[in-house]
Amino acid sequence: MPSRQFPSPPPLPPHNRPLQSTLLPPLGAASAAAFSFLLFFVLCFRKISRKRTVPSDAKPPHRFSYSALRRATDSFSASLLLGQGGFGSVYRATLPLPDPKQSRRRSSSVDVAVKVMDSGSLQGEREFQNELFFAAKLRSPYVVTALGFSADRKHRTMLLVYELMPNGNLQNALLHRKCPELREWRKRFSIALDIARGIEYIHGLDPPVIHGDVKPSNVLLDQSFSAKIADFGLAWVKEENLDEIKVETPEKKGEVMVDSNSNYGGSVLEESESLTATTGFEEFSLGVDQSPESFLRSPEMSAEPPVGASPEENLIERKESDDEGKHLNDEGAVENAVVKDYVMDWIGTEVKKERPKRDWIGIGGSSSGGDRGIAKVDKKKKNSRKRLDWWVSLDDDKEDRIIKKEKRRPPREWWKEEYCEELEKKRKKKNKKQKNKREEMGMNGDDGTNGEEDWWPRDDEMYRERKKNKRSKSRSSKGSIDWFSGELFRGNSHDSMSGKIPMSGGVSSTPSMRGTVCYVAPECGGGAGSLSEKSDVYSFGVLLLVLIAGRRPLQVTNSPVSEFQRANLIHWARNLARRGKLLDLVDQSVESLDKEQAELCITIALLCLQKSPARRPSMKEIVGMLTGETEAPPLPSEFSPSPPSRFPHKPRSQKRLA
Ligand SMILES: Nc1ncnc2c1ncn2[C@@H]1O[C@H](COP(=O)(O)OP(=O)(O)OP(=O)(O)O)[C@@H](O)[C@H]1O
Q1: Contact between residue 500 and residue 494 where contact means Cβ atoms under 8 Å apart
Q2: Rounded to 5 degrees, what are φ and ψ at 292?
Q3: pLDDT tens for residues 459-481?
Q4: Residue 415: pLDDT band by 50, 70, 90 thresholds?
């Protein structure tokens, strides 16, 4: 049967073809073009954003909107002020948390602390960048978490957002507010352990991070008084074997004896580490400017670092040695005198590097500021510096302009002997006046004190002195020792307009110096050249003594001469150790004291305060000793109850009696 073939239908006229088939080719072409455009934009965006964002190993901190933070702080209301530091004010804020399910509706909120950094000071900017850098790096229950930031060009503000630590800083809680919780020995011990763990954590990172400013006001307390380390504005990343800025430590020259098994108090020679002062920012290519020049040491800095104690110790020690014609230091009076001069000279040159008053942020009544940690700008280095200001526009030449404009006023040479004598005379004159006054009023008290209680200046007393100190400071140099707290006030940590006393206790990091006087290790006379983990260990040692004794490291009061011996906490602790009376150091207000633990803590503190960094224990070893995993070594022989004393020490009081 012949197959029937159906004739194929005639082609449809164009206007009769289905719409679909007509539109398909151009649609396809258009979508392909759109897709390739999109791809092109995505690639471009990724390329740009890759430059601007942090490297893969670091989570970029969250960027908050300025208006959200302003709202959350009630326009930076003074009633929400938590504290005031050298470079800005810190406010309590409540931020609404977006509900993960219904992103538009907000169901809960979180309390945070917002630090408003001063955008007018170079160092404020540096600290901001530094904090931001470490915010991306550090995650530990013993370190205050930085949640994010905001940088607002229009308002010229830099803000950092942290987890809220409801009990503020340790300095305040211990010395000003005298929180009853801290009377419990157990609490103090657990705080010591928290801090040790925090520092152990940062030292244990690869590469290690050095905090550079360990002190009670940089330790914050949470709801249950657990401690966390804060303020990484001066922290830096320690890197070895990089040839950018290589600084030889004395250890490198083989001058320091190190025990290869244990770091403290040993005698077996070990090749010491060669420190390279590098910021680590180059490495992480964050573009954060922690420029190398701030770590460069001036030619005189390459001299042997001091083996003496911290500047305050030196001051006291000098006074003592002059009075007695002897020196307590076993390591040689002549050598020490040279070293001390070197430290004092260094402080002098650094204090000169004060910054002019800049346009500070007007929020919260911040006052003008100075700088800290800035060494002279080396132009060559500056040009080669990497900088990626992706969140805030920093004027590249700002630094130079400020330095050129800077009018340097010769600072008050407060570190010099004459000034000490002047102060001493003033103090005596004041004492005499007070004594006469008391006698006129028929009051008893021949030395101006009523015994042990009055040895510690009361808060109101101290605040009065601080106010006085502040007034006189406006006349003299910005950097001056607060002789009553034994710490150095930086001009900008006060509100010079309102006369407010900073809530953090007014204790600020030393101007133009990495660290804080009294807490800074002797080898850190200047720059980061000799900074190492062991510098943090030294500072931890001072902090530990402060925590145990419940007093400042240096307190010069209107007290009898015998009390003057106790003015320097470190000296006092060493003397007590020599006399086998360690427990005399413990704060009288401490309850339920565990004597064994207290002795252990003071022993650890003294080990940390050894002049040779190599002899100090590592933070890991300290944590081991505090937790009881490792046994604490005996005190170094110079602190043992019967010291092999070369110089028979006669207390000043005895000398006078003679
Ligand atoms: N996350 C926080 N939670 C609660 N209070 C805080 C927080 N951060 C800072 N503060 C308070 O604000 C004060 C000022 O902090 P900031 O870090 O600016 O200065 P500082 O460390 O005291 O001084 P400096 O920066 O000069 O060393 C602190 O001492 C503390 O009392």
Answers
A1: yes
A2: -55, -30
A3: 334 444 444 444 444 433 333 33
A4: very low
Ligand 1 close to Cβ of residue 231 (< 6 A): yes
Ligand 1 site, residue 85, Cβ cutoff 6 A: yes
> In terms of Cα–Cα distance, which of 250, 233, 275, 261 is closest to 516?
233
The terminus-to-terminus CA distance of the chain in angstroms comes to 147
Q: Do strands 146-152 and 62-63 pair parallel, antiparallel, or not at all (unpaired)?
A: parallel
Is residue 341 part of the annotated active site? The answer reads no
pLDDT at 624: 97
Q: Is the CB of 165 under 6 A from ligand 1?
A: yes
- State how far the Cα of 256 lies from the Cα of 270, in Å rounded to an integer: 9
Residues of the chain with pLDDT > 70, as a percent, come to 47
**Range 609-621 average pLDDT:** 94
Q: Can you tell me the mean pLDDT for 376-386?
A: 39
Cα(264) to ligand 1 centroid in Å equals: 33
Using most ligand atoms within 8 A of CB, pick from 126, 145, 231 the residue to mutate for ligand 1.
231
Q: Residue 217 is encoded by which pair of tokens?
A: 């006001």
Record the tokens describing residue 599, joined without a space.
């002795």
Whether the Cβ atoms of residue 606 and residue 616 lie closer than 8 Å to each other = no
Complex confidence, ipTM: 0.97
From 213, 482, 536, 587, the catalytic residue: 213
Gap from CA of 435 to ligand 1 centroid (Å): 39
When pLDDT is averaged across residues 350-370 and rounded to a whole number, the result is: 32
Write down the pLDDT at residue 151. 82
Judged against a pLDDT cut of 50, whether residue 328 lies above it is answered with no
Measured CA to CA, the distance from residue 206 to residue 184 in angstroms comes to: 36
H/E stretch holding 317: helix 311-324
* 502 vs 89: CA distance, rounded Å: 9
Structure tokens at 89: 């004010």
Q: Model confidence at 135, in pLDDT bands (50, 70, 90)?
A: confident
Helix locations, 138-274, DSSP H:
170-171, 185-203
Selected residue with higher pLDDT from 552 and 266: 552
Ligand 1: does its nearest atom lie under 6 Å from the Cβ of 220? yes
**SS in 3 state form for 203-252?**
HCCCCCEECCCCCHHHEEECCCCCEEECCCCCCEECECCCCCCECCCHHH
Sign of dihedral through CA atoms 154, 156, 158, 159?
negative
**Secondary structure in 3-state letters for 569-596:** HHHHHHHHHHCCCHHHHCCCCCECCCHH
CA distance 448 to 438: 9
Q: Choose the residue to mutate in 117, 142, 175, 220 for probing ligand 1, maximizing ligand atoms within 8 Å of C-beta.
A: 220
Residue 519 backbone dihedrals phi, psi, to 5 degrees: -105, -20
Nearest CA to ligand 1 atom 23: 85
- Which two tokens mark 246? 């290589």
The bridge status of strand 146-152 relative to strand 157-163 is antiparallel
Binding site annotation covers 429? no
Task: State the closest ligand 1 atom to the C-alpha of 233, by its place in the atom list counted from 1.
Answer: 25
481 CA distance to ligand 1 middle (Å): 21
Out of 291-300, 447-456, 488-497, which region has the weakest mean confidence (pLDDT)?
Answer: 291-300
> Which range (13-22, 28-37, 295-304, 483-492) has the least confidence?
295-304
Query: Cis link prior to 18 (omega < 30° from 0)?
Result: no
Closest residue by CA, ligand 1 atom 22? 85
Question: pLDDT at position 96, please?
Answer: 84
More confident site: 260 or 641: 641
Q: Which residues contact 449 (CB under 8 A, 6 or more apart)?
A: 455, 557, 558, 559, 560, 563
Q: Residues 266-307: pLDDT tens digits?
A: 322 222 333 333 222 222 222 333 322 232 222 222 233 333
